[in-house]
Write a structure and sequence with these properties.
Helix content is about 55%, strand content about 15%. About 10% of the residues are buried. A 5-stranded antiparallel beta sheet has the order 3-2-1-4-5. It is built from 4 helices and 5 strands, in the order H-H-E-H-E-E-E-E-H. By secondary structure, the protein is of the alpha+beta class. InterPro entries: MT1774/Rv1733c-like.
C-alpha cells in the first residue's frame, strides 16, 4: 500500500531496534517511544515471569493438594465382581488389547457397605464372576482414584508453565497493540505531510 513501509525481515530486526535507540537524523520521536516501550515490556516480562511462575505454581499445588486430601477421605478402594463377560478384543495379546478397556456391568460395595451395581471399564475377555479393583465415592459411584502426589506436582507445574506463557503473551500483545497505534499515527502524519508537500511538486500544464 502506498505510504506504508513493509516490515523488515527477521534478520534485520535487531538493526531496526538499535536504529530506533541510536541517535540519528531519521529517528522520529515515535521510534524512540516504541523502542523504549519494547525494552520496558521485555524487562518487565523477564522480572514478572519467575514471580508469577512461583506464585501460581505454589497456589496450584496447595489447591490440588486439598483436592487430593478430600478425595482420599471420600473415596474407597474396593473389589468389584463382573456381572457379565467383557468383550473380546479383535487382536488378543496385542499391545492395543493390553491398553483397551470395555464398559462392563459390575457389582461392588460402597464405602458404607451397601451393594451397588454400575458400569466401569475393564480389560477385554474377563469372564463373568471375575474380580477387579475399583474406586467408589460416598455416593456409590465408581470414580477415579485420588490424586497422587505425582499428579498434584504435574498439575502444579502445568499451571506454572501456563502462568509464565501468559506473562510473555500479555507483554507481546501489549507491545503489538502499542506498535499498531504508533504506526497508525505515523501513517496519518505521513499523509498530512504529503498533502502539504505534494502541491509544491505539481507543475502547471
Amino acid at each position: 500500500m502506498p505510504g506504508r513501509t513493509p516490515p523488515p525481515p527477521p534478520q534485520e530486526l535487531p538493526r531496526v531496534v538499535a536504529w530506533r535507540l541510536r541517535r540519528n537524523p531519521l529517528r522520529r520521536r515515535s521510534d524512540l517511544v516504541q523502542a523504549w516501550l519494547g525494552l520496558g515490556l521485555l524487562l518487565a516480562a523477564l522480572a514478572v515471569t519467575p514471580v508469577a511462575t512461583v506464585l501460581v505454581g505454589d497456589a496450584a499445588h496447595r489447591h490440588y493438594t486439598r483436592i487430593a486430601v478430600r478425595q482420599a477421605d471420600t473415596r474407597h478402594h474396593t473389589t468389584a465382581t463382573l456381572l457379565q463377560d467383557a468383550r473380546q478384543h479383535p487382536e488378543p495379546g496385542s499391545v492395543e488389547a493390553r491398553k483397551t478397556r470395555y464398559p462392563t456391568r459390575v457389582r461392588f460395595a460402597d464405602p458404607g457397605g451397601h451393594v451397588r451395581t454400575a458400569t466401569t471399564d475393564v480389560p477385554p475377555a474377563l469372564r463373568k464372576g471375575s474380580t477387579i479393583r475399583v474406586w467408589a465415592d460416598t455416593d456409590g459411584n465408581i470414580t477415579d482414584p485420588p490424586l497422587s502426589p505425582g499428579r498434584v506436582r504435574d498439575r502444579a507445574k502445568g499451571a506454572a508453565v501456563i502462568a509464565a506463557l501468559g506473562v510473555q503473551a500479555t507483554a507481546a500483545a501489549a507491545y503489538a497493540t502499542a506498535a499498531r497505534v504508533i504506526q497508525r499515527r505515523n501513517v496519518a502524519a505521513w499523509d498530512a505531510a504529503w498533502a502539504e508537500t505534494a502541491p509544491r511538486w505539481t507543475t502547471s500544464p
